[in-house]
Amino acid sequence: MTNGIEAAWAAIMALAGAPRPDGSAASSIRPLFAADSQRFGRFSHGAEGLLVDLSKTAIDDRALAALLDLARAVDLEGRRAAMAAGAAVNETEGRAVLHMALRAPRDAGYRAGAEDASAEVHATLDRMRDFVAAVHAEGRFTDVLNIGIGGSDLGPAMAARALWTPAAPMRAHYLANVDAHAWEEIRPRLDPARTLVLVASKTFTTQETMTNARLVRAWLAEHLGEAKVGAHLAALSTNLPATAAFGIAPDRVFPFRDWVGGRFSLWSAIGLSLALALGWDAFARLLAGAHAMDRHFLATPLARNLPVLMALAEIWHVDALGYPTRAVLPYDERLARLPAHLQQVEMESLGKRVTLAGTPAARQTGPVVFGEPGTNAQHSFMQLLHQGTTPVPCDIILVKQPDHAHADSHRKLLANGLAQAEALMRGKSLAEAEAETPGLGVHRVFPGDRPSTTIVLPRLDAYTLGQLVALYEAKVFCLGALWGVNAFDQWGVELGKQLAGAILPELEAGAPTPGAHDASTEGLMRVVLG
Q1: Does pTM surpass 0.90?
Q2: Do domains 2-73+300-421+451-485 and 100-285 have the same CATH topology?
Q3: Residues 346, 348, 372, 473: which is the catalytic one?
Q4: What would the DSSP string read from start to end of 102-124?
Q5: The CATH number of the domain covering residues in 2-73+300-421+451-485
């Protein structure tokens, strides 16, 4: 198996390092269109209305065949089946990885060892649905405040921004940063008598979350009296003793299991803020869209499988061509928080330097992911993407049909998104630039041959957002398998938290412990304490 994997990698690298038969560089894209008028049709694929176009990458038939050989060599299909079967594919923690169970039907039959995961999921979903119905029927609450961080914040906050409309049942707010300026920014917009607070922490010990939760609890008690606080609180947690000590009744605590990683937990009890703010039907449609993408991922042959193809394109860009970053450019203001969510989903999953075998990774793994909505990005960092020294592959996300009546604005938005992809690929030659600005043309050359993947949604609603997010989640699984790393642990977030726990008592005491830290850290502690 190892020999087959290395042979597949060698074939990919050989293609990347040599000219094509027509003499063009392996990184060039324009010659591929010149040689094949049907390239768009052959390198774009769809699933239930969502389209992924890979034609503006430098992947040709030979590269795609080599990349698919790598997928087969690592037994991607077998690993996919193992994940779906509830095997402990999170090997370093000995856990199953079953976020797909969170959005699957009641009779899906997902299991984690002896546990009926599907039954567990739907028992919680039933309780969530009843709680949402009761809150809406009571009519007391106009706002829901979710207190969490990382996966307990980024996914729900992204989805709420994408899907909320003034017709929605409640307004959603998200408090993550332990910096109390975040709370002070939100607080004036809330009426304590009409605010429902969710504390999202599996262990109910996360420092940032519990610090914020205590701040907000004190605010409720100050304005409403201690006796009324409990009616304004609910928890997304598994630590019933801790939630009870905080004043939250057991029937207002909604759990999620350890086979759900935080960055994949949007679909679990962590999504309760969405169900409250958007309504249960919208939350159910979000789950349904994600499940539709799961069905596509689990059943579609590799050569037409959207998450697989996106993962293979990333392998080509990161490892074969040496492009270490990727920009996510949603041409829809409602998806403004999608890049931040994907930063966690991808970088926390794939920022690994050691393989599952415990050996150093032989090649580059996860790229840096960043982004901003178009057209804002065009007036920000797109200069670097067009004329910088290192190409930056882009995901350009377009929404065909808007939910507003301003047709002219939407046409201009789409025109800009399409133009950016074309400009990155096509570029501008020195001759063209000189013809426009004689003597200054060298400054206006665009190298072109810069890759982009375009994703088109028919419209942005709960169902299509579910599809889109699940597409990226499945892509992450594929990349973990292709690179041979565990995409489902996150030890890299631990060390800083541990050291912060050691530093905090010293800050509280007003002085660093001599010799406990390096000279820089000790010096900085004295500065911030001075």
Answers
A1: yes
A2: yes
A3: 348
A4: GGS-TTS--EETTEEHHHHHHHH
A5: 3.40.50.10490
